[in-house]
Amino acid sequence: MVQATGVRKAFGGQEVLRGVDLSVPRGSVTCVIGPSGSGKSTFLRCVNHLERPDGGRILVDGSPVGYEPYRRGLRELRRRDVARQRRQIGMVFQRFHLFPHLTALDNVVEGPVGAGRPRAEATEEAMALLARVGLADRRDAYPAQLSGGQQQRVAIARALAMRPKLMLFDEPTSALDPELVGEVLDVMRDLAADGMTMLVVTHELAFAREVADEIAFFHDGRVLESGPPDRLLTAPDHPRTRDFVTRVL
To answer: Which Gene3D superfamilies match (predicted)?
Structure first.
């Protein structure tokens, strides 16, 4: 589903990504771990072209993200075409970014209706999605009336409403109080069990051990090593990975 090759990105002369290679098979869960500043979130934003890579290539479901074939190379898509392509890639951020003036239901309905889906159909599906994340009874609540965990679950429902083929999660529990983390992770476990392809940046190593098919350890803008959870979290090859895992666990 995702094939990243040699992805590079710099901000103001500082190279944040230094040639990232990463594959995410269809129907699998890949968790990205690593210290702050290692390029994890920047890479995730490159996958759906919220950040434009300076080099390398990212394919999602076989198509270059943000680009189209042109002559013997590629050219960048127009903004509206990038937005259309991005509908297939759901993203859940650290902060919830819900519309404060809309109810939970309307937050979920807004995207599909804007994409041309009939409101009645979008509303029916949104109600089903809110039920799936355990918030059917909060459909008429505004974000200010919801806890952080509830807001994040609405954000997940909103992303799912676009019927994405890939879900990106950028540390979705980092802004939550500890007692609210579990309710968001439960929803993500359910998605993984249903076969949703997921790329998750997280510091929740216990969750990664349980759910991930593959874990990639980022350090200094590169994938230092990757592998199945049982190996990478218990007997990593690289000393830097071993040090990080020991400290976090």
So the answer is: P-loop containing nucleotide triphosphate hydrolases
